[in-house]
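It is time I had a proper look at our fold encoding. Can you supply me with one protein entry, sequence and fold together? It will help me judge whether the discrete encoding reads sensibly. Leave the record below and I will have a look:
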Amino acid sequence: MRDSKTFGLLARGGLVCYAVVHLLVAWLAARVALGDTAKADKAGALQMVVAEGGAWLLWLIAAGLAVLALWQLGEAITGHRQVKARRRTVRRIVSGIEVVLYGLVSYSAVKIAVAGADDGQTSLVAGILAKSYGQVLVNATGIAVVAVAMFLAQRGFRKTFTRELEFGGASGPTRTTTIRLGQIGWIALSVAYGTVGVLTVIAAVTFDPAKASGLDAALKTLVAQPYGGPMLLALAAGIAAFGVFALLDARFRKI
């Protein structure tokens, strides 16, 4: 099925949906940097989709990202056979991370389409912290998110994402632009997720679930710092760069 043209088109469509979500997140983050109180995370972006395009568009995004998650799940389990064993293991781990990234956004889209809102993770973290093992689990989760953020950063710095691209007859400037946008975008995402991870660890250490409220809280924490507005605008530009890269990724990704 993964080799069929239909599946390839669906997967590329899912990447376009992923790009749109990140472009909306970048727009919301820029608004927060300029003093707006918008919810600057993927849930906020998805709620904007409902407000502007209707629930049907949200279901389309959810379906596209679900296809992406299933595709990467297959790659994580049995894929990347064309590369050497050591690199194959790394590629499968990358696919596993992408399963989580795509799957979470798809889940949020379905949740918002059904319920009309996303409660975020505060109530979830509060429930976990109430357990005897909660503090350890939330702390471990935060550390894992920071580790993923570090992985995303090296993905940008080392340009390892280019291994998944097939430029074919693309021009030199198109290749260069795609790679530069990918570098900026992956590093920007690493900063965003790294902030979320650090806040999650703080929530575990201080036993305060309100501090682990996801990307929205992370960006609003950033904007509250000295020179936070310009920093958040720069981060918004980086997330926008990732959104544009994801559009190009939809064109050049090996599927």
Summary: The radius of gyration is 18 Å. The CA atoms of residues 82 and 194 lie 32 Å apart. The mean pLDDT is 79. The first helix runs from residue 5 to 33.
